[in-house]
Amino acid sequence: MACDKEVANVEWRIKVEEDDTLKRKLVGCMWAVTAGVALKLCMFVKKAWELGLNDPRKFIHCLKVGIALSAVSIFYYWKPLNDGVGGNAMWAVMTVVVVFEYTAGATICKTVNRMCGTSLAGFLAIGVHWVASRGGEQLEPIIIGVSLFLLASAATFSRFIPTIKARFDYGAMIFILTFCLVSISGYRVDELLDMAQYRMFTVIIGSILCIIVSVTIRPIWAGFELFVLVTGNLDKLANSLQCCVSQYFGGSEAPEAENDEVSDKKLLGYKCVLGSKATEESMANLARWEPAHGRFNFRHPWRQYVKIGASMRSCASCLDALIGCINSDNKASDEMKKNMSSISMKVGANCASVIRELATTMRNMTKSSKLDILVTEMNSDAQELLGFLSSYPNMVNAPSHNAKLSTQTETAPSDVPLAAKVEIPLMQIIQVVTVASLLIEIVSRMEGIVEAVEELSDLANFQPEMSVKSKQHSADSKISPDQQNAEEADTTLQMV
Amino acid sequence: MACDKEVANVEWRIKVEEDDTLKRKLVGCMWAVTAGVALKLCMFVKKAWELGLNDPRKFIHCLKVGIALSAVSIFYYWKPLNDGVGGNAMWAVMTVVVVFEYTAGATICKTVNRMCGTSLAGFLAIGVHWVASRGGEQLEPIIIGVSLFLLASAATFSRFIPTIKARFDYGAMIFILTFCLVSISGYRVDELLDMAQYRMFTVIIGSILCIIVSVTIRPIWAGFELFVLVTGNLDKLANSLQCCVSQYFGGSEAPEAENDEVSDKKLLGYKCVLGSKATEESMANLARWEPAHGRFNFRHPWRQYVKIGASMRSCASCLDALIGCINSDNKASDEMKKNMSSISMKVGANCASVIRELATTMRNMTKSSKLDILVTEMNSDAQELLGFLSSYPNMVNAPSHNAKLSTQTETAPSDVPLAAKVEIPLMQIIQVVTVASLLIEIVSRMEGIVEAVEELSDLANFQPEMSVKSKQHSADSKISPDQQNAEEADTTLQMV
């Protein structure tokens, strides 16, 4: 017995000790988990904060939402106003929450959709209700049920139709919502009319408040964002193109190591062009809801920006292939590269200056006087490059001559004497030929961008450059800071 | 006087006649306008109907919405049930309208968001309300107003953070909505607890109903859609590539005129690949909410499909440049084309068969045993093409020999004797060289697709082919009709 007791005692002690270490372990574990979660949370908050610092307009938008909500809740608290809408002021609050969006265009689009959907569905539902109430107690639920089923299905189907989806997607949903609310609720028709009136009134109040806050306090216009995105992408494309050509052909004058990152960023700018299709389309859809702002009219041809974007993407995919070829294994002979460098770099620089001129045209909203000259120059340079390639067998010369060439690069390539022919294996010129012909292909695709921008300038009635020259300077200096700001933001915009 | 009267008479008559013609014109005009509107409406309805016929699942979705709404409105009409939630059954109806989406993933995502947002905001709001009610009548509106402002701003800002935007965008909105509803409404706390309970209960009922209808009646899984989109795009890319190479090099065996449209469609299939980035990303975001379905587990690596899509796009943009070069003005010499046709077409066909094998791998969810061999073959063919190009100066022969070559195309190119050298100007081989080197670039970019698919096969634990060979046959025949259906739909999916 005594022995048993002792054993039990020991066991108990062991248990207590075990419990103690377990407890300690548990506490330690909990601390570790808490610290881990806290650290992660800190990192998350820090990242989010940086996101906001990169684009302060995000902070401003949040403040705007807060202001709009506070304003509409004052309306709720102010008794006479709330009584005026039958105590339904909560609908106004809900409208603000649901309708307030980042860009003014999106806010207006949702507002209009909500008002149209609500009123259309309200009238229809009251009509159906009236018909059903005549049908007697037995028919009433059947009539309402069938009409609900049919209308909800039809409205849902309409959301698949591209034109409706682009403009009235939200409206169709609100239509179903309101129809359900009104037709199902077993109110009498005269009560319904009151309710419909209050609901319309509160929705309108909330909507107007949203539009006012969205448009007056540092407005973010979808149209302007689209404009900045497209013109910024034009610049990026130009930089990428020029950077890539000059890096390849002008390899000898390599940029310094500290500039590597900058030039890499420049080189890969075209990827933004390739990836901005969806953003452009949604912006263009929203922009058409916006009133005239800045230098844009109400019916500014926003769809044209999508077309410009598409033609840019076609160029950018060619540039992507070009950069791929440059990075591939089979290298070109340095001689050939040297021979072609001046003309190729000229083509690249001309392409880039055409693109930049197009961007300037769009920024200044003027018809460029230089554009035609630049395009002609670009085309003739491309022809020259092609001609240079065609005459190449005459150029395959002994290395001795090439050494001479490299010292006098100013000599026009066609001037080279035909003496001392030596064949260069095709292997060594594959890359250069590919790069050159892709450059020519890019030049031919540039036509698409030029045409699209010219169509825009016709549609939007751009003025000839001369007549606005004097105005330009002031406009330029006026717009640039805002634009700069927006341009900085546009990378983050695409990130999100 | 008599004369005057007569004049007046005549005038009157003229006026009457004028009025008559005006009326007739007006009626005619109105008829024309009505007919025009009716015609346009007819066209619109016809188009919409065709949209539905192309993808009957759209019709089914509409019926599902109708069914869900009817079911939830029965719940509203059934008095005991409605009384059980304090007459708040309308919230369940609203939940169904707002939450029901096309794919099961989207429905589940919105459902979970709505439930989480509602409950989180509800608890917070009750807490704030309780604190405010302790603060006395003067402090109460200030505490509530400030907390509303801060929380609404913070929740709005969280919607800009990419990870939250991808998963909890709707939840953040519902959070603000519920917080406003609860904190603004001047109810007492115990009333609030009741209301919160009812609201939670109705939201859950509506949500569960939505999920049941969405998942049980012909469910449309975002994951499966993504899978069909990506594998279909792989096939399209393979077809485009093979079609383009064989059209260019095998021009002599031109397809018949009636097949032109079909082959054009095949050729341009790669454009779908270029344009499906946004669809893929949104599908991948939705798919992760879905439970296991078909052969996909709950944690199927959907993000990997986006990576596969990205690597496909990189190939497709190269193909785009290739097709651009083929359509450009400077034509290649037929001789060179003929010499290179067999090897180039082999590269094209091999590339296509690698892509098709990848698609098969994904469809069968097996690790392919052939893939390594095919990739090796493709790479060695590409090397051969490069080698052929490098040895080309030896190939520039007199036309007499080329005539011989064309009759015995089986002769390996490297066997050509070195006799009778004649130079072909570089001009005539630019295009062929470009096409060949872009082909080689495409082969090198194929590596990205192969790697991405192999990573997928590791992540999703694909079985080795041998062990599932017997199962495969039945699975193949079981899946194909559904897949066919989905594949047909996928073009319309991208359209919308």
TrEMBL record, chains A, B:
It is a multi-pass membrane protein. Residues 467-496 are annotated as: Disordered. Pfam families: ALMT. The chain crosses the membrane at residues 61-78, 90-108, 138-158, 170-189, 201-221. GO terms for biological process: malate transport; monoatomic ion transmembrane transport. Keywords: Ion channel, Ion transport, Membrane, Transmembrane, Transmembrane helix, Transport. It is found in: Membrane. It comes from the Eukaryota. The keyword Protein transport does not apply. One of its GO terms (cellular component) is membrane. Belongs to the aromatic acid exporter (TC 2.A.85) family. PANTHER family: ALUMINUM-ACTIVATED MALATE TRANSPORTER 10 (PTHR31086). This is Aluminum-activated malate transporter 10. It comes from Sphenostylis stenocarpa.
